[in-house]
Specification:
This protein has 289 residues and is mainly α. The chain has one domain (2-288). Helix content is 81%, strand content 0%. It is built from eleven helices and no strands. The protein has helices spanning 2-25, 31-53, 61-98, 101-113, 119-136, 148-174, 178-200, 209-233, 238-245, 248-260, 267-288. Helix 2 (31-53) packs across helix 3 (61-98) and helix 5 (119-136) runs antiparallel to helix 11. The protein is globular and about 55 Å long.
């Protein structure tokens, strides 16, 4: 279980850094165009390493189909929803609402997989959600033109992210190869986001070379995060993995403060960080006992 927690924390680190790099890239391209660069970039890397990481003698058709269905939604749809929410509401509200994903993940795991959710895991997930909300929220920074429609983007993203984690776990129970899950999922996602970008077109002009590189970097970072998440799900229940990964806004806030100077480490951020870390530490203590 220690390995699962370490893999989950590494995944959260990557997801948090990916939010920062995508924020920079979104200054030049819209959500669909950015996703059409970032996801295929990671896909190329996964395909190139597939001959060395996937043993076809263990191939399971049912698992492959599950990974493909999950790929339609995660990372494809989740990336589009997250980027769009980042555009309309900003990273503050997007990160705060995204912190509710483990609640949906554990509910889906209980309903779809029959997974038992320990009370400690459920309380830890709520602690992470509360800490992330406090960490991400900045009084007075919210746009006045909030609407129910705008909030649908991050809420939908949190729901899809949570359900997709349970779906991926179902596939990994049949074929416990996180590389296979990543390759198949990303191939399907690449087709989805590229097709979406070509059909509707982006709303901003052609990106500069630096803009393209930022989204390529985002793709590689998020791809690593997905692989680490699948590796954790292959050896641990959703109730262990989901709350830890949901702490990625903590990494985003710290990275923004260090590299973009967009955050000031005030009492609110410190309190949010303490609550988030304490919730994860409590979850870890229960899993390792």
């Amino acid at each position: 279980m220690n390995d699962a927690l370490l893999l989950s924390m590494a995944s959260a680190l990557c997801f948090g850094l990916g939010m920062v790099t995508s924020r920079i890239g979104l200054r030049q391209l819209d959500a669909r165009a950015g996703a059409a660069i970032s996801i295929p970039s990671a896909t190329l890397l996964f395909v190139a390493t597939a001959p060395f990481t996937i043993e076809m003698s263990t191939f399971h058709l049912g698992a492959a189909l599950i990974f493909a269905v999950v790929g339609l939604f995660y990372p494809a749809l989740v990336t589009l929803l997250t980027f769009r929410s980042n555009e309309e509401l900003g990273p503050t509200v997007t990160s705060a609402i995204s912190g509710t994903a483990p609640l949906f993940a554990m509910l889906a795991a209980a309903l779809l997989l029959g997974e038992h959710i320990p009370p400690q895991a459920a309380m830890a997930a709520m602690g992470v959600a509360a800490g992330v909300a406090l960490l991400s929220w900045q009084p007075g920074s919210a746009r006045v033109r909030f609407s129910a429609r705008s909030l649908l983007w991050p809420v939908a993203g949190a729901i899809v992210r949570g359900v997709a984690q349970a779906g991926a776990k179902a596939g990994l129970l049949l074929w416990g190869n996180p590389f296979a899950a990543s390759v198949i999922g990303y191939l399907v996602s690449s087709v989805a986001v590229t097709g979406s970008d070509r059909l509707r077109g982006s709303t901003r002009g052609k990106a500069s070379r630096s803009g393209l590189l930022w989204f390529v970097l985002t793709g590689l970072i998020n791809g690593s995060a997905m692989l680490l998440m699948y590796a954790a799900l292959a050896i641990a229940p959703v109730s262990t993995v989901a709350p830890v990964i949901a702490a990625y806004p903590l990494v985003t806030a710290l990275a923004t403060a260090l590299f973009l100077r967009g955050e000031i480490l005030n009492a609110r951020i410190i309190a949010g960080a303490v609550i988030t870390v304490a919730a994860i530490a409590w979850l870890a203590s229960g899993r390792m006992s």
